[in-house]
């Protein structure tokens, strides 16, 4: 690994301090390096606050002159909630700027690099690029597809079941896997479940991490006719995060108004085959700054996302249990007639999580 790649990896680690807090902005980390030594680190904490490179440069002041700046995403060149980062970089007098990946935002997209080069700064881009793009998968999805990114989280047995024949699903996975899911909830903008999951499990969908450090994601329920009881746990929580019910125009107005009186936001979506148009919902969530959505079930919801081609990543915990053919399979969707027509994913990354195994798979487009 080159020295530039090693420093970029450190910049990526610095940026992780803002994970789950920056939307609709990307997660960005930056380092100021002088004579092979890191003299400052910065990260983007949240929208409206200084960007990573500005934070790092401010820490060292005049010591940045003649130094190298590593940043995981191309510096911005436009006025948003903050001034253009390229102006601060040029004013700081850095010698070289090393960029992980080009910003997909049409307002930037190469303009930051060109502006820095016109100012006489040596610019290198594409360092540790795959990892830098992956760190901002949600931001790239929104910029390129105009919708939120959907990540399916599944906990299944060795024979692919998420519940027994009686519907019991507590617990398929072990405590280590469940603790990791709570960390994900802290990092994602929203968590999403179907109405049937709310009825059966009455989940809180909150983040429960040791030390009380977690922050709740926005809770999204799919309920095409607003049939969920107002006594459901998700409607009775004390949480700073909003609760959203995605429904359709077929839902009675009175039911929608009753939810709104409880402080629930109701989003009326387009329909497709009589159900909520999931792509329309993801577009609406992205437009309000919720770029990363963790889809937690159940089987019908998983199957609907798969059938619609809206799965950007699949995270499936496989537990060392077998419940048999009468158990509930995790993907409720029409089966293809031949194996050649089966939905395919790229080879997964695999890791042991307690007694379970986590497979992370990306779809083959």
Characterise the protein shown here:
- By secondary structure, this protein is of the alpha/beta class.
- The chain is built from eleven helices and 18 strands.
- A nine-stranded mixed beta sheet has the order 11-10-9-8-14-6-15-18-17.
- It starts with a helix and ends with a strand.
Q: Estimate percent helicity.
A: 25-40%
Cα-based radius of gyration, to the nearest Å: 22 Å
In spatial order, strands of the major sheet run 11-10-9-8-14-6-15-18-17
* Computed structural class: alpha/beta
Number of helices: 11
Q: Percent of residues in beta strands? A: 15-25%
Q: What distance separates the N and C termini?
A: 30 Å
Mean pLDDT: 94
**Shape verdict:** globular
Can you write the helix and strand succession as a string?
HEEHEHEHEHHEEHEHEEHEEEHEHEEEE
Please provide the count of β strands.
18
Largest sheet: 9 strands, mixed
- Low-confidence runs (pLDDT<50, min 5 residues)? none
Compose a concise summary of this entry.
The chain has 365 residues and is an alpha/beta fold. The chain has helices spanning 3-15, 52-60, 85-92, 111-118, 129-135, 137-145, 175-187, 195-201, 253-261, 278-287, 299-307, and strands spanning 29-34, 37-43, 68-73, 96-101, 122-125, 149-157, 161-163, 190-194, 218-222, 243-247, 265-268, 271-272, 275-276, 292-295, 313-319, 328-329, 349-353, 356-361.
């Amino acid at each position: 690994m080159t020295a530039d790649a090693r420093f970029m990896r450190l910049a990526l680690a610095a940026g992780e301090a803002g994970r789950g807090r920056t939307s609709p902005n990307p997660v960005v980390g930056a380092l100021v390096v002088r004579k092979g030594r890191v003299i400052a680190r910065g990260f983007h904490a949240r929208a409206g606050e200084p960007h990573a490179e500005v934070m790092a440069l401010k820490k060292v002041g005049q010591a940045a002159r003649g130094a190298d700046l590593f940043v995981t995403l191309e510096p911005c060149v436009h006025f948003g909630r903050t001034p253009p980062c390229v102006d601060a970089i040029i004013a700081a007098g850095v010698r070289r700027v090393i960029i992980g990946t080009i910003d997909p935002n049409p307002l930037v997209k190469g303009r930051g690099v060109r502006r820095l080069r016109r100012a006489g700064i040596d610019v290198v881009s594409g360092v540790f690029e795959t990892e830098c793009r992956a760190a901002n998968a949600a931001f790239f999805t929104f910029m390129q597809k105009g919708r939120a990114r959907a990540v399916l989280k599944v906990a299944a047995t060795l024979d692919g079941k998420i519940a027994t024949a009686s519907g019991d699903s507590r617990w398929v996975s072990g405590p280590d896997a469940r603790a990791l899911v709570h960390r994900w909830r802290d990092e994602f903008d929203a968590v999403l479940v179907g109405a049937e999951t709310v009825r059966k499990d009455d989940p809180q969908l909150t983040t429960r991490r040791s030390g009380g450090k977690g922050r709740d994601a926005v809770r999204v329920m799919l309920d095409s006719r607003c049939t969920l009881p107002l006594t459901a746990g998700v409607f009775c929580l004390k949480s700073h995060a909003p609760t959203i019910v995605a429904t359709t125009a077929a839902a009675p107005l009175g039911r929608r108004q009753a939810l709104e009186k409880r402080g629930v936001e109701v989003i009326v979506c387009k329909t497709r085959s009589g159900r909520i148009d999931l792509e329309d919902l993801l577009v609406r969530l992205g437009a309000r700054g919720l770029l990363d959505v963790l889809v937690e079930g159940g089987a019908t919801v998983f199957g609907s996302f798969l059938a619609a081609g809206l799965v950007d990543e699949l995270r499936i915990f496989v537990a060392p249990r077998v419940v048999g053919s009468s158990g509930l399979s995790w993907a409720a969707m029409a089966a293809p007639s031949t194996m050649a027509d089966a939905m395919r994913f790229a080879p997964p990354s695999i890791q042991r999580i307690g007694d379970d195994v986590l497979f992370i798979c990306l779809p083959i487009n």
